[in-house]
Amino acid sequence: MKTRALKTVLCLALSLATLLCAVACAGVEEGVPEGMKNATVAGSLFRLYVPNVWTLNTAYGISGAYYRFDTTSTVSAVRYPITDALRAEMEAAIAEETAEQADAAGKRLEWYFRTQCLAPIQAQAQGGTVEEVAEDSVAIVLDKTNAKRYHYKATVNGALTHVVQVVAEKGDAFYVITAMLDDTLYQTCIPSINTVISAFRFSDEAYRPKDYAKYIDANDSPYADMRLASNDDVAYLFYVPKDESTWVVNYDERIFSVYHATDRASISVVPFNPANETMDAVAYFEECKLMMINTAGKDGFVLTKEDDTTVAGHAAKVYEYTYSVGGKTYQYRQYVLTYGNMIYSITYTATPETYGAHLGVVDSVIEKFAFR
């Protein structure tokens, strides 16, 4: 149960942050290489393909797949836009290291890897120890773009784990492909990872799947100022602001969520069915908290508020915290409650700069949230 919970929460935490920088524009689905399938989430400015025998892991908004559920064997791809602050920090750091533009590109990739990719793994690694496999860390070409491939090992959650990452800079963003493989599966999976890297493609058009992941009758709402953002597949009623041009329902993920069109703040509802019947809201959040500390490091998670409240007439807990993922810090308000044999997590995510702007909307969403 614990492993499953941590994986679920990890995907959720990453997807909530990814919603803030996702691109929502129309695109055309591209052809899939023979023997592979598309593991790309909607809105991505790239195409990630994986072997047919791998299982897609895109339900929570991250492009990726896994080989075996019970043993670490995952691959994912994420695009990280370069903010003004990140650019200034990076350029200041490498300014004294090289005066030649030809060398600067390589220095930028190296700096991004060391500060944004390697640091989170070091925070998870036992004793903070990471061993780089130097002979496998080489310059490569990723879809006609210069990139750097890294291979390193660390003991994570008690298991020796190989991490293979490819970092590329294209346009105004860094692209990172990450494979995490348990030592017992490394030799089995690395040929597939090599194929995934070779098949990866950048795209000027955001990926848009042929079919939506879900359908919603938004007009089925008793509120003049709110519309429905969930459907009959779930036991709850999730209402969001009626203005579709401002608050956009995400139809491309299995979870029900809405995001702000301008600043990408998001509100999502995630149900969880615990194997342990004694798990309650507090125990659930403790697992969330442990996962976030493990992935972001002790300083990457800061709990600022914990309180009792009610949601849909049921006792609930509300937590406010900041969490750093992918080199960025996000601010959260998370409501957790039990209903029947399920645990429900309603989470608001925003950047620290825009967090306060939407709290009124969050209050309204919580006030009108109900069970069928």
Note down, in words, how this protein is organized.
This protein has 372 residues and is α+β, with helices and mostly antiparallel strands. It is 25% helix and 36% strand. The protein has six helices and 23 strands. The protein has helices at 2-19, 84-94, 101-124, 186-199, 281-296, 359-368, and strands spanning 36-38, 46-47, 49-51, 55-56, 63-66, 73-81, 131-132, 138-142, 145-156, 159-170, 173-182, 201-202, 226-228, 236-237, 239-241, 247-249, 256-260, 266-272, 301-311, 314-325, 328-339, 342-350, 370-371. Strands 4, 5, 6, 7, 8, 9, 10 and 11 form an eight-stranded antiparallel beta sheet that branches. A hairpin with a 6-residue loop joins strand 5 (63-66) and strand 6 (73-81). It is globular, with a radius of gyration of 21 Å. The model is unreliable at 1-29 (pLDDT under 50).
